[in-house]
Design a protein that fits this description.
By secondary structure, the chain is of the alpha+beta class. The protein is built from 14 helices and 23 strands. The chain has a 4-stranded mixed beta sheet, with helices on one face. α4 packs parallel to α6 and α6 runs parallel beside α7. The mean pLDDT is about 95. Bound molecules: uridine-diphosphate-2(N-acetylglucosaminyl) butyric acid.
């Protein structure tokens, strides 16, 4: 079993390059199934979630090439299978995007319920509602969602909750659906916009992505092309937290500063110096003491839930009481039991975490319980004097490209070993 060993307590310094966005890649790769032509997708992160979604589309008959580790070429001209294997789908959440993509290509599709990290109940009712609003018949049993899309056409969808996945699935389903679709109360995350930009660059007619209302005129077909995925906001935020928690000074390259605004604002409120450049930000936490703050996670443009775990670790290094309210998921604090092994003091009450910060962290053996929890354990180990180890790296590998090499390049004493 692989584990990461970190001899922490040293301020990180230097420059780190951010990879393409995981949550954009896992939507854009299924979206390429709507194109009966070659799509060249660049800046794809080299992570296991991408491998999993590629494996799924290959099993459906798409041809996939990887000319280098960050470029994927998808040709779905000969897509021939409309049933997704439950074992493959259980590996990740984004397997649900095959629902929206397959009903654009076939009159019927059978896609299993998705896997993914466990944050309590993760319903897909809004995804299924959108398919029904677009003329589909949908029947879900314990394993599969069975969709009859012979009546697929444009329609109006009002989402009862703001959902990234449901917004993306509805865009996928509506792209080739005859007529006009209006989606209301949409998610505005950068990866929703990136998906719409990808589809538009292939000939789709999607307007309003990044706002509450998205309007789509169905087109007859899409053409191939080349598209570059946006940088990963969450990977960048994780390195920001690592830089600040170690009281370091790190330049984070290849980012879109606009996507980082809510995060930078909270770091500045703590007393971290943030310098913004065109495609980079510098995070400097070594010139004054940091302050305790309150944070609430919210859909974009709010503070992202996926950075809640690294933020909690950062706040545990700051003197005083901080409060973090989880505003997206009903249960995203299970991992704190692992952090408590390091002496971090966190009290959980429903969706509110109260952190008594400032006590020195103790090295510990930690087990990653999900992707972002695993990343937060790496941040904690970097901030802690002594050697800590982290296991269950398969979670971290799902979403962080070459994390050990990137941390070493900014001065971390970290290695990955096979036990
Ligand atoms: N929700 C419903 N019904 C639905 C869909 C969602 O009630 O049909 C609720 C959820 O229970 C949750 C809220 O709406 O309370 C938001 O869920 P959303 O659908 O936006 O989440 P998701 O699409 O399943 C994506 C990311 C997650 C990220 C969330 C929120 C991907 C593949 N996953 O999940 O990323 O936490 O948006 O931003 O894009 C991660 O990268 O580690 C990760 C978990």
């Amino acid at each position: 079993m692989d584990k990461i060993l970190i001899n922490g307590g040293k301020p990180l310094a230097g420059e780190v390059h951010i990879s393409g966005a995981k949550n954009a890649a896992v939507a854009i790769i299924p979206a390429a199934l709507l194109v009966e032509d070659r799509c060249v997708i660049e800046n794809v992160p080299d992570i296991s979630d991408v491998d999993s979604i590629l494996q799924m589309i290959v099993s459906l008959g798409a041809e996939v090439e990887k000319p280098d580790c960050n470029t994927v070429v998808v040709d779905a001209t000969n897509l021939s299978v409309n049933v997704v294997d439950p074992e493959l789908a259980s590996k990740m959440r984004a397997s649900y995007y095959l629902m929206g993509a397959l009903i654009g290509r076939f009159t019927k599709a059978k896609v299993p319920h998705p896997g993914g990290c466990n944050f309590g109940v993760r319903p897909i009712d809004q995804h299924l509602k959108s398919f029904r609003c677009l003329g589909c018949e949908v029947v879900a049993d314990d394993i599969f969602v069975d969709i009859d899309a012979s009546g697929l056409q444009g329609g109006n969808v009002y989402f009862d909750v703001v959902s990234v996945g449901a917004t993306i699935n509805a865009i996928l389903a509506a792209t080739l659906a005859p007529g006009k679709t209006v989606l209301e109360n949409c998610a505005k995350e950068p990866h929703v916009v990136d998906l719409a930009n990808f589809l538009n660059s292939m000939g789709a007619n999607i307007r309003g992505a990044g706002t509450d209302v998205i309007k789509i005129i169905g087109v007859g077909s899409l053409r191939g092309g080349t598209y570059t995925i946006i940088p990963d906001q969450i990977e960048a935020g994780t390195y920001m937290a690592a830089a600040a928690a170690t009281r370091g000074d790190v330049v984070i390259n290849n980012i879109i500063p606009k996507h980082m605004e809510a995060i930078s604002a909270k770091f500045e409120e703590m007393g971290v110096t943030i310098e913004e450049y065109d495609e980079a930000i510098r995070v400097k936490a070594n010139d004054r003491p940091l302050k305790n703050i309150k944070v609430k996670t919210l859909p974009y443009p709010g503070f992202p839930t996926d950075l809640q775990p690294p933020m909690i670790v950062l706040l545990s290094t700051v003197e005083g009481t901080s409060v973090v309210t989880e505003g997206v998921w009903e249960s995203r604090f299970q991992y704190v039991a692992e952090l408590e092994k390091m002496g971090i003091k966190i009290d959980i009450n429903g969706t509110v975490a109260t952190i008594e910060g400032g006590a020195p962290l103790k090295p510990a053996e930690l087990c990653a319980t999900d992707l972002r929890a695993g990343a937060s354990m790496i941040v904690a180990a970097l901030a802690c004097n002594g050697v800590s180890e982290i296991t269950q790296l398969r979670y971290i590998d799902r979403g962080y490209e070459h994390i050990v090499d990137k941390l070493r390049a900014i001065g971390a004493d970290v290695k990955r070993v096979d036990d």
